[in-house]
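Ticket opened by: R.M.
Priority: normal
Category: complex prediction / small molecule

The reporter submitted a protein together with flavin-adenine dinucleotide and asked that the result be attached to this ticket for the collaborator who will pick it up next week. Submitted input follows.
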Amino acid sequence: MYDIAIIGAGVVGSLIARELAKYNLSLIVLEKENDVAMGSSKANSGIVHAGYDAKTGTLKALLNVKGCKMMPRVTEELAVAYQQNGSLVVAFSSEEMETVKALYTRGKLNGVEDLVLVEQKELRRMEPQLNSAAIGALYAPKAGIVCPYTLTVAALGNAMDNGVALKCNFPVTALHDRSSHFEIVSGLEAVEAAMVINVAGLFADDIAAMVGDDFFSIHPRRGEYYLFDREMAALARQTIFQTPTARGKGVLVTPTAYGNLLIGPSAEDIENKEDKKTSQAGLDKIWHDALKTVPNLPKNGVITEFTGLRASGNTGDFIIAQSPAHPRLLHVAAIDSPGLAASPGIAVYVEDMLRQIGILTQKRSVFYPYRRGIPVLREMGKKERLGLIAKNPAYGRIVCRCEEISEGEILDAIHQNPKATDLDGVKRRTRSGMGRCQGSFCMPTVTEILSRERGVPMEQISKKGPGSEILAGKTK
Ligand SMILES: Cc1cc2nc3c(=O)[nH]c(=O)nc-3n(C[C@H](O)[C@H](O)[C@H](O)COP(=O)(O)OP(=O)(O)OC[C@H]3O[C@@H](n4cnc5c(N)ncnc54)[C@H](O)[C@@H]3O)c2cc1C
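Result attached by the on-call engineer:
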């Protein structure tokens, strides 16, 4: 029996697990997929919003500002790619400039530091590739960019290094309140825990419904993107938003934490929570809208497209609340944007709540907040790189030529918590296969390494868990 079970290994569940790992409790994270960060935390814009966007007084506003302030320390402790590159909300008309000024005022009320309104001349100096029709902007220097799935992997990895258990391929199918504890069922398996935290993203309302809670609902909203080659990164220095409308923040143009360029997302309400297809109409719309921001976007710089699904709630705010009928069940739901930016703040908020209701009493005598992470050889100087190769020659064998990823980095991904067991898991942790050729050259070698290190035949190595195996059998 565990003290606490967390359902969902997205960025929020993982950072909550890490925060609670500081206490003398037994904890388990239950995840339906073969790996962590497989929901909204896998495919989003990766922006650490400053916090001027959310309505003052909401949990979104409070926790966005808190999370943004915490992000530099959290990412440093966890060795996660993060840059405080700042963000701009640009206006193309005097009407839009009024909205931008209102965002400035709201940002101040929300507690966002160092906001500045910038005029056209200064704007052009800051962003030389920006459409010259832009007349002014709101500049938020504390906004940043982070790799969302590396943050998730690192947070849960650090929680695991401090004693938290993880069970993947465990889709929760039933939740029974047995009065002294919960029985959490997945098919024929069950896990028992005194308390449950429901952080199941798009499926949080389905988990709630398992015990009769129907006070919130979650709807998928699709967001599509184009990702560009690293050579295009100079087209935007800051994260550039257009002026928001009632439909949302609109299409952004931003560098990513790994130096690519990203445009998107679209915003389309859909029915199916599993529908992660891209659509030509959605992609055409983001392309058209992004050209308004940066007119020189080159189509031949695009290396891939992808979709993420937002978990939009019916209240418009994050829902962090005890179940009315089952007080040992806590729902952390409707965590759509700015949920990534807010995630460290949400984790501390949940910790505070559990302390107030007497669940968290005794801190562990030892908690180790740091994670070594996977060294990124591509970003190292020659001396540092040679030093690492001298200690372990595997760092000298390049497997992914586009992204310059070595066998040593792939071995780290397979052996560090939470261990990568499939090709996409290695890709998300190291970027192997994320470059121009999108894995055509390195996939066979990564398959061989996974097979060797896991001690399983190559035919059992999958792209993303059971059912997506790559090889059928030997031909010679
Ligand atoms: C297109 C898009 C753009 C975004 N851009 C930004 C941005 O720039 N900045 C920002 O701050 N936020 C952004 N967000 C929001 C951000 O991505 C989310 O707020 C955040 O990822 C939510 O994390 P989570 O852990 O709550 O959910 P998720 O990452 O969805 O995790 C939930 C987990 O629960 C698991 N699960 C579900 N059902 C079950 C079950 N029955 N049993 C076991 N496990 C289960 C899922 O597999 C998943 O791993 C964006 C979102 C999208 C989709």
